[in-house]
Batch of 3 targets.
Target 1
Amino acid sequence: MMPGDSNMTSIVQRIARQALVTFRSPPQVGEEATKSFLENQSKLKSLMTEVRATDLKLAPRRGGGGDGSSNSPSGVSPPVTYMHICETDQFSMGVFLLKSGASIPLHDHPGMHGMLKVMYGKIRISCFDRLERPADGSAQAAEMGALRRAVLRTIDEYTEESGPCVLSPDRDNLHQIDAVDGPTAFMDILAPPYDPDNGRDCHYYKVLTEAEVKHTEQKDKVWLMEISQPPDFWCGGEPYPGPEVCL
C-alpha cells in the first residue's frame, strides 16, 4: 500500500500517521510553536474532527457503561476504562470510556501536548493553566499537599459533534473530565506519553474552596493542592475493537 491516504486506509490509521508527524518535534514548555507544527496540528485536528464511534467499532453504552473489567481487589468494575490503540516514543493513542456520572479527577500532563475527541455521549472539561512553572520546564517535584497557583480557563461541554479539545504544555494543561447525562467515550492522544522515569508522571489536584484559603483571590484564580489519586477513581483496561494501527 502506498503511504498516502487512500480510501482503503482507516481514519484511525491516518490519525496515527499524522500524530507521528505532528509530534516528531513539538514545542516544549515556554517555546513558541513553529509554523510547521501548527500546520501539522491543524491537519490532525481536522482528522480528529471527522472520526466517529463507528470508525473505532464502538457502540454507545447504556447505564453504567463498563464491560465489567476490574483491577480492583473488591471486584467492583472501574468507573473508567481505557482501550489502548497504539504507542510510540512520540505519542500514545487510545479511548477512555466513562460510566454515567464518572469523572477523571483534575490532573496534569507535564510537558505534554494532547488532543481528545468525544466518540459518544457528552463530557464536561474544566481546564486550568498553572501560573508558575519551574525554570527548566520540568514538572515540579513537591511533597503531597503542595500548593499551586492556577487560573481556571474554561468549562466547556463536548459531544461527538464538537471539534477536539486541545492542550499544550502551557495552555489548558490541567483538566478534569466529567461524564454528563450518561456514559461517554472519547479518543485521546498524548504527546509524548506519560513516563514517570522522564518526569512525566500524572499528578492529581484538589481545588481549594474560599474557606480553605485565608485571603480572597480573584474569581478566576485558584489554589490547587496536590493530592494522592482519589480512592473512588481508578482506570481498568479493555480490548480495542477497531482497526489495527501500523506505524
Target 2
Amino acid sequence: MIKNLRLLLLGAPGSGKGTQTSRLLEKIQITPVSSGDLLRTEISKKSSLGLLASKIIQKGGLVPDHLMIALIYREFQARNWLGQDCSWLLDGFPRTQNQAVALDDKLTVAPINCVIELDVPEKVILERIENRYIHIPSGRIYNLQYNPPKVPGKDDITGEPLSKRPDDNAEVFKRRLDNYHKKIDPLKEYFKNKGILHSIRGETSDIIFPQLYEYITSEFTSK
C-alpha cells in the first residue's frame, strides 16, 4: 500500500505524461487532482472564484497564481489532505519555480514530497508528434508508429476521419519544447535543491513505466 506520497510528474509536451499517469493510477491507490479540472468545475458552478477566473480567461489572461493556489488549498482542505498522512497526485500545477515556492508556503505541513521527471529524448518526442493523429470529437489519439488505426486515416470506434493538429509538426513543436525547458529548468532546480527530484529516462512508455512504478513502490510503500 502506498503511503504518504505527494507526487508531481514533470514531462515535456509529447513525453507521454498522460499515459504514465493513467498506467500508474491502474497500479496504485492514489487520488489525482487536476488543477485544470478544479478550475473548470469552479467556472461551471459560477462560484465567486470561478466567475473571476472566467473574466480573466475571456480577456485572454492567465489565472493568477494566488487564485490557483487558493483553489488547490481549498480542495485539499475539503479532502482532509493538509496533514502528513495523505497521498495525492497533483497534475498541471506548479509549472514554474515561483508557483512551487508559493504552493509550498501554503502546504506547510504536507507539501509535494516526490517529483519525477519523465526524460524522453527530444528526437523521440518530435518523431511521435510527426506521426500523431487525433479523432477530434472523442480526443482519441493515434500514432502511426506504435498505435496506428486499424483502418488508415479512420477512428477505430466510429470510422470517422482522423485529423492532424496544425501544431503537430516538428518545427512548431520544437519551439514549444524550447519554451517548456526555459520555464521548467528553474522549477527542476528548486525541487533538486529540496532533494525530491528524480529523473527517469526512456524512449517508450514500456521502458519508462517499470522504472516509475519501481521507484514509487520502493520509496513509498508502507512497511
Target 3
Amino acid sequence: MNKADYLAFPAIVGTPGQYNSMRKMWDGHHYKYHMDRMGNVKPMVDNKAPRTFIHCHLKMKKIQTEQEYLMEMERNNRVLVSRIARTMARRGVDNWNDDYEIFSKNKASAGADERNRGLVKISLENQAILEKLTCTKPVYNHKQWLQDFKVTREYTNRLRKYPQTSCKKVIHQFHNMHNVTAVTNAE
C-alpha cells in the first residue's frame, strides 16, 4: 500500500459515517501489512548462538592419545602379570642371570671380607675415642667463669648512669627496710 492512496481515500467518500468505518478498515489493513513486514525483517544484531562444529566438540586426537595410553597400560600390566607368574612358578628371583642364586649361595663376593675388616677397624677406632672422652676431665672451671662475670658486671656498673642491681640485693634491702621500720614502730 502506498501512503498517497491512504491519504487520497477520504476525499472520495462524502458521508461522515462512511469515513470512520472506511478509515478503520484501511488502518487495520495497513497495520496488518506493517506487522507482516516486521515479522519478515531480519534483526540488525545477531543474537543467536554461534554455529557448532563437530570438530570443536569431538576431539579425535585426545581420544586417540587416551586409547594409546590405555593400550600401553594394559600391555605393561600383562607383562607384569607374566613376570609374576613366572617368578611364582620358579620360586626364585626374576633376573636376567639365571645362575644368580647358585652364584650367591656358593661364592661370597670378592669385597665382602675387605668391607668386614673396614667395619671392624672403624668400630675399634670409635671405641677408643669414646674411652678417651670418658677418661678426660673437664678443662672449663665454672667457678672461674662466675668470678669473671662478676668482675665484668662491676665494670659495666661503673660505666652506667644508673647501676644495675641484682635481685638478691633488692630483696635484702627491702627486708632491711621493713625490719628497721618494725623496730622503730616497736620503740
